[in-house]
């Protein structure tokens, strides 16, 4: 649908970039400058609880992060620029799949995104419930965290619940591991570094009268720089192996980097703040907002190009104020024009005719 819409506006279209990714190219004049803007397309495996007419018609699938809104804004801007845009250079419109898994941006990069469609800079926005509708929040440097996931296997020796001395209980060892992991942020990291480590799953066989042979503990760790993530990884391996050994159990730690941090370049973050102020008023822009410990795989694109990622307020009232990924979330259609206008003016001011 996106490819058809772009083509209907006379925009050059490339499909199948990193899976279902779509790239639109719009050239004007002979200017060498180029600017890329990215919108995500994917939904979430959530059953929508809203009752309004435009709720999801797909059971178990919902646009609970508002990516359909981001796509609509960029599509609107692309079609406007194709028919009325006054700029000189190349605008690259990136429609990216699979953001929620953290793999879509990387897949498009591996498909040669910036080699095939060169861009000097790259920008993206994300709606944010709880922030006044239409308000812009941005910051130089880290704006979203990196996300690492971990899976810890503790192997003991299963036995009868009434004869614990005949085996090695991995549940007790695992419980001590969960407790010891609470010291990771509190005692291992510089208090001035932001990080969070959360155990989110603890699995055993679940049989009433059996001490199982093994347990699996999983979770998620977030921080804003790779060295902090690496420090968590190393300390986790040391703590888990020490605690497991103390209980006579064996362990295995898998620590994987899923999302890289989203780190804005200062110049481009400044461009967002200035343009936002000129379009919507200085009181509608927070140029140094606090970072969020959530993650966005746009960070992978920022590892290859300067650029900025900013938040556009989704509103504070009713469903518009409900959190991203909530089954009652509602993208605020009242900010569609703000996002589209921002992208149009960004291209026109950064690639002046
Ligand atoms: Zn999301
Ligand atoms: Zn999102």
Primary descriptors:
Alpha-Beta Plaits, 8-stranded mixed β-sheet, 4-stranded antiparallel β-sheet, binds zinc ion
Concise summary:
With 353 residues, this protein is of the alpha/beta class. Helix content is 31%, strand content 29%.
The sequence of SSEs as H and E is HEEEHEHHEEEEEHHEEEHEEHEHEH
- CATH fold-level name of the largest domain: Aminopeptidase
**Using only CA atoms, what is the Rg?**
24 Å
Give me the secondary-structure category: alpha/beta
- Mean pLDDT reading: 97
Task: Please identify, by name, the CATH architecture of the largest domain.
Answer: 3-Layer(aba) Sandwich
Strand content: 25-35%
**Biggest sheet: strand arrangement:** 1-2-4-3-5-16-6-15
Q: What proportion of the residues is helical, as a percent range? A: 25-40%
Can you tell me the overall shape?
elongated
The biggest sheet, with number of strands, parallel, antiparallel or mixed sense and barrel status, is: 8 strands, mixed
CATH superfamily of the largest domain: Zn peptidases
According to CATH, what is the class of the largest domain?
Alpha Beta
Number of helices: 10
Uncertain spans: none
The quaternary structure here is single chain
Identify every distinct bound molecule in the structure, by name, code or SMILES.
zinc ion
